[in-house]
Specification:
The protein is an alpha/beta fold. It contains 14 helices and 11 strands. The protein folds into 2 domains: about 220 residues, Aldolase class I (TIM Barrel); about 60 residues, no CATH class.
Length: about 300
């Protein structure tokens, strides 16, 4: 078995976290990741409700026992109701990412729960350290959904040299080779998202799973047009990596008002809706159960690390 700080402190079997993907990571996906030995995180996006958190947490708990919850810090600054809802479910881990978590870390720690933050730059790391988080995730620009611009490997190396906090890697990790690589570099494990997007346990439109299987690693685009089309007020420093389609071909880099983009956007149409996915999408070739994906990645990583140990 692969043993790292992550497995010891979170009492999990394999050093894998399931990404808290808004609109994709509900209770079933989260629970299956935990059941397979990792720790799944619910994606409590800005538009989620306390009722949704409670219902999906119940599903995750029934399937896999322990689970975590991921929250967008910049959204909590306007309304922290979802943090209260998350803490009420007694998760094993709370992710406070995309913004300064300092105002919220003490509340999570008071509940006896560790805090993780995804960071995209060295400056982000310093903000997270000052806030008192317990571990950080080096989220590279290869990652799906909202992320930064620095590649995973350069960012991971920079953070490992700059902090004594445990570091987990995210972005572009879709097989055991990726997990083995980041552990060999010094990471305590990986957060995976794109590798799970074709799994039947994801929530969201069915066409999203098909698009993930069909797409190659060169078929994504880093863009803000989907946020604009859906009136999602993400801070401008974070774009989102998505599978390119007719909508991005027409509007990415073009001039268009939010009203124009909203009129052109259609969440029911795979050519005009959003499927956030990272560059690891080229490693997803079929719709496999989430638990199978997690177990396979962990087993392959262990085999590779033993081979070179």
């Amino acid at each position: 078995m692969l043993e790292t700080w992550l497995t010891r402190e979170l009492r999990i079997e394999v050093p894998i976290l399931g990404a808290p993907m808004g609109g994709r990571a509900g209770g079933e996906l989260t629970g299956e990741v935990s059941k397979a030995g990792g720790l799944g995180l619910l994606g409590a996006a800005r538009y989620a409700t306390p009722q949704w958190v409670a219902e999906e947490a119940a599903v995750a708990r029934e399937i896999g026992g322990r689970f975590g919850v991921g929250l967008m810090t910049w959204a909590l600054d306007d309304d922290d109701t979802l943090l209260d809802a998350a803490l009420a479910e007694e998760p094993a881990l709370v992710s406070l990412s995309f913004g300064d978590p300092a105002a919220y870390v003490p509340r999570v720690h008071a509940a006896g729960i560790p805090v993780v933050s995804q960071v995209n730059t060295l400056d982000d790391l310093r903000v997270a350290e000052r806030a008192g988080v317990d571990l950080v995730i080096a989220q590279g620009g290869e990652a799906g959904g909202h992320t930064g611009r620095i590649g995973t490997l350069p960012l991971l190396q920079e953070l490992l040299d700059a902090t004594d906090l445990p570091v987990v890697a995210a972005g572009g990790i879709g097989t055991g080779r990726g997990l083995a690589a980041v552990i060999a570099a010094g990471a305590e494990g990986a957060l995976i998202g794109t590798a799970l997007l074709a799994s039947p346990e994801t929530i969201g439109p069915g066409y999203a799973r098909d698009r993930v299987v069909e797409a190659g690693s060169a078929d994504t685009v880093y863009t803000s047009v989907f946020d604009q089309a859906r009136s999602q007020p993400w801070p401008s420093r974070w774009g989102g990596r998505a599978i390119a389609n007719e909508f991005t071909e027409a509007w990415h880099g073009a001039e268009g008002s939010e009203e124009t983009l909203a009129a052109a956007y259609d969440p029911a149409d795979p050519d005009l809706g959003v499927v956030y996915a990272g560059e690891a999408v080229g490693l997803v070739h079929s719709a496999r159960p989430a638990g199978e994906v997690v177990r396979h990645i962990a087993a392959d990583a262990e085999r590779l690390l033993r081979r070179f140990a």
